[in-house]
Design goal:
about 0% helix, mainly beta
């Protein structure tokens, strides 16, 4: 019964901020022991991990994106967000949010359906 849904603008101009929201139902984003992750897939390429926000509110980011990425949450709405500042065409991708259980083995148990974001003038 856990569902995740991405939302936000599908088109972003270069130098603007890419902003997405993941709305979660069926699972509280503050419940032990889950991490809430953003992943993207550029056209013709593999999946790339962007970052995560833990049940505690702690955040962790890919080293390649950390300088311009921010993940936050609104617990009253059971949502978490992604912001990528200074967007470039290389940020064009399908963006996914996902739930990751704290486990001895890595894995994702629930995904959103994904949303296309294009960075173009």
């Amino acid at each position: 019964q856990v569902q995740l849904q991405e939302s936000g603008p599908g088109l972003v101009k270069p130098s603007q901020t890419l902003s997405l929201t993941c709305t979660v139902s069926g699972s509280s984003i503050t419940t032990n022991y889950y991490y809430w992750s953003w992943i993207r897939q550029p056209p013709g390429k593999g999946l790339e991990w962007i970052g995560v926000i833990a049940y505690s509110g702690s955040t962790f980011y890919s080293p390649s994106l950390k300088s311009r990425t921010s993940i936050s949450r609104d617990t009253s709405k059971n949502q978490f967000t992604l912001e990528v500042i200074s967007a470039t065409p290389e940020d064009t991708a399908v963006y996914y949010c996902a739930r990751v259980p704290l486990s001895d083995r890595p894995g994702i148990d629930y995904w959103g359906q994904g949303t296309q974001v294009t960075v173009s003038s």
